[in-house]
Amino acid sequence: DVYKRQFQGSVDAGNPNNMEGPLGECREGFSTGNYTYADMAEFNVPLEPGNEAAYLTMSKVQRRNSNPFIRKATESDPAAIVRNGYVVDFAFYQSRFSLPTPDIIVYGLGMNEFIRVTNSNDLYAYVLDNEKLMMERIRAAWPNVKIVRWLPGLPYNRTRNTQWTSRYIPMIRAVMANLNALNNPKNILVPSWTFANPETGYDTGNDTIDPLTGISKVEMTDNTHPVGCNRLRLFQGIAPYIAAAKLCLLYTSPSPRDVEES
After folding, report:
1. Residue 158 vs residues 153, 154, 161, 219: alpha-carbon distances, Å
2. pLDDT of the residue at 6
3. Residue 48 φ/ψ, nearest 5 degrees
4. Checking CA distances to 220, which of 57, 58, 152, 169 falls within 20 to 30 Å?
């Protein structure tokens, strides 16, 4: 019952507060740095111990603005995992809500970093630092979990086209560099940015009709979030990776002989 009340997703692309979707911990507006508490914000308030029952009675918006994944750092915590006096601790999060151990984590953070960190050099460093910490802390809590890492694509748009090389590629490179450095076969990268359709499936508006041709022209009013058929196509591409991860088809565990020889 506690697990069922954690964080309901939305089935309405125009209403992030809808609570009829899949369960998870997807939080509107959160960047990786919000999870790690490298970035403090008004929507990223630490949920202190003892407030778990109150958290479960909050509205979705109130829960979104709370951070239940962090705890205050102690003297025994290495400085490398501390951000602004707190440590992201998924074992603590699991314990405080009596949650089951996950088999697979579908990890799709990235677009809020892409939007907020405008310098490509800063973006690469920001993503790499927080990505490393998140993956290491997930692995510290759940050594055997499979992490399916994905990112959405970008639309064909005059603004986003120039950002492919200046910002989006540096973000992908940071994600890949971290996975290569961690070198864990249970960390699975999905090239999901290739699945989304860049020309359709984004909100449009400001319709005008060309008086000569009668053709209706529209503007892309949201060049970040795929919707409708495009969102469906994106997750239809990710789904086989989740199923393959569940069936252990994407990596091979070492045999006892290999372990002995190494």
Report:
1. 15, 11, 5, 11
2. 56
3. -75, 150
4. 169
pLDDT value at residue 181: 95
Return the biggest CA–CA distance within the chain.
Answer: 77
Quote the CA–CA distance of 163 and 192 in Å, as a whole number: 17
pLDDT of residue 126: 92
Structure tokens at 184: 């864990």
Q: What is the mean pLDDT of each run of 10 residues along the chain (262 residues)?
A: 54 75 76 90 91 89 90 97 97 93 92 86 91 96 96 89 91 94 94 87 84 82 85 91 90 44 38
Measured distance between the N- and C-terminal CA atoms of the chain, rounded to whole angstroms? 45
Question: pTM for this one?
Answer: 0.85
Query: Whole-angstrom Cα distance, residue 144 to residue 162?
Result: 39
Exposure on the CB side of residue 178, measured as CA atoms within 13 A: 22
CB 149 within 8 A of CB 187: yes
d(Cα 64, Cα 67) in Å, to the nearest integer?
8
Phi, psi of 239 (to 5 degrees): -55, -45
The two tokens of residue 167 are 């910002």
